[in-house]
Amino acid sequence: MAVQLYGELDTNRQFSLRRASELKQKIVPYLEKCLTIPTGFLNAALIQKRREHILNYFNATLQDWEDWHWQLKHRVQSANDLKALFPQLSAEQCAEVEHIGRSFRWAISPYYLSLMDITEPSDPIRLQGLPSLAELSDDFGEEDPMGEALTNPAPCITRRYPDRLIINVTNMCAMYCRHCQRRRNIGETDLHAKMTDLKTALDYIRANPEIRDVLVTGGDALLLNDHTLDWLLSELHSIPHVEIKRLGTRVPVTLPMRINDHLCSILAKYPPIYINTQFNHPQEITEDAKKAADKLIASGVVLGNQAVLLKGINHQPEIMKKLNQELLKIRIRPYYIFHAKNVKGTRHFVPSIKEGLEVMKHLRGYTSGLAVPTYIINAPNGGGKTPILPQYLVSLKENQALLKTWEDKLVQYETP
Ligand SMILES: *Cc1c(COP(=O)(O)O)cnc(C)c1O
């Protein structure tokens, strides 16, 4: 009996070893590609050099750099600043930026600028921050493809779902993403919502007890000042049917110094708070971003990421996989990957759905389930978030399913 068991174990072990070596082979191409994808951590020395250069230009100190108000006040948003900061850029390039800026506003925080290789047109940070001529030749996109104007039952509110809604509190951001879905709201100037409008929005929430989840966004929710934020969160906190509060913000990526002790002491008062941010490329994951995440987590905030799938930035499966893995290392859980919307001026960023599915196909099974967010297409005109999955269920009849595994193996599955 014992001898037989050993024999069985032997063949099982041999079988397992063969399978393990097959699995090991599967990851080799990714590991090779991975070496060529830099992260913010790997770029630390470069980033520091750029920071010194920018500080020199503004005649400022490291202490200034760590002050989010200083960062906002010194956002680079004119061709003159750009030219003076980066003499490597040609006069033509700067004129181009100025020209595009007349149609679509731009501004970049010094911090985000320090992550950027300004002379490299394919740099994923530059693509997100610096205007490009392609923005002016978009004959496909619309101003408001989500029809937010038509799902606005009260000032500042977008309601598209039964139990939750958005409050838009500002149009201001630390950096105006070139792929912004709400660029129609950016306008010429920074505007926070009027106090009277916020009060009316809160009245709407109070009057509708089925609203259990309120998402504060913008713009960037964390560009509200501490005082207003404290007030708004305490108001929401005092509404018994509001079970959770969420903040939509890109500051962990574009202005991590905003996550300071004072802000964290406010956030800590109103649990549960969920923050979804938007990292789109591993190069955005820096020591500063990690510090911001650590502080938020220490204040009891739960962190998630909503990446936007962007052509030329992260539409390659290896980059998206690396991004999600790097996010987990700083305790940010990948939540959604959004298919870029058809917003006027962003056509050059919009990938095909096929490319999106390819990205998803390379995640499930190949890496931790924690690193696999849901891929979402926003249905036009406020139809809502619609999940898109590669075909894992090939057919389903009564109690017979035909499944396709992550390795494309077809298997029959039967239920009683
Ligand atoms: C995205 C969104 C939400 C939140 O959706 P979840 O899938 O719950 O994250 C809520 N309201 C509006 C209007 C939205 O666009």
Automatic annotation (TrEMBL):
<dbReference type="InterPro" id="IPR013785">
    <property type="entry name" value="Aldolase_TIM"/>
</dbReference>
<keyword id="KW-0411">Iron-sulfur</keyword>
<dbReference type="InterPro" id="IPR003739">
    <property type="entry name" value="Lys_aminomutase/Glu_NH3_mut"/>
</dbReference>
<dbReference type="GO" id="GO:0051539">
    <property type="term" value="F:4 iron, 4 sulfur cluster binding"/>
</dbReference>
<feature type="binding site">
    <location>
        <position position="173"/>
    </location>
    <ligand>
        <name>[4Fe-4S] cluster</name>
    </ligand>
</feature>
<protein>
    <submittedName>
        <fullName>Glutamate 2,3-aminomutase</fullName>
        <ecNumber>5.4.3.-</ecNumber>
    </submittedName>
</protein>
<keyword id="KW-0479">Metal-binding</keyword>
<keyword id="KW-0413">Isomerase</keyword>
<dbReference type="Pfam" id="PF12544">
    <property type="entry name" value="LAM_C"/>
</dbReference>
<dbReference type="InterPro" id="IPR058240">
    <property type="entry name" value="rSAM_sf"/>
</dbReference>
<keyword id="KW-0004">4Fe-4S</keyword>
<dbReference type="GO" id="GO:0016869">
    <property type="term" value="F:intramolecular aminotransferase activity"/>
</dbReference>
<feature type="binding site">
    <location>
        <position position="180"/>
    </location>
    <ligand>
        <name>[4Fe-4S] cluster</name>
    </ligand>
</feature>
<feature type="binding site">
    <location>
        <position position="177"/>
    </location>
    <ligand>
        <name>[4Fe-4S] cluster</name>
    </ligand>
</feature>
<dbReference type="InterPro" id="IPR007197">
    <property type="entry name" value="rSAM"/>
</dbReference>
<feature type="domain" description="Radical SAM core">
    <location>
        <begin position="159"/>
        <end position="370"/>
    </location>
</feature>
<dbReference type="GO" id="GO:0046872">
    <property type="term" value="F:metal ion binding"/>
</dbReference>
<dbReference type="Pfam" id="PF04055">
    <property type="entry name" value="Radical_SAM"/>
</dbReference>
<keyword id="KW-0408">Iron</keyword>
<dbReference type="InterPro" id="IPR030801">
    <property type="entry name" value="Glu_2_3_NH3_mut"/>
</dbReference>
<dbReference type="InterPro" id="IPR025895">
    <property type="entry name" value="LAM_C_dom"/>
</dbReference>
<feature type="modified residue" description="N6-(pyridoxal phosphate)lysine">
    <location>
        <position position="385"/>
    </location>
</feature>
<keyword id="KW-0949">S-adenosyl-L-methionine</keyword>
<keyword id="KW-0663">Pyridoxal phosphate</keyword>
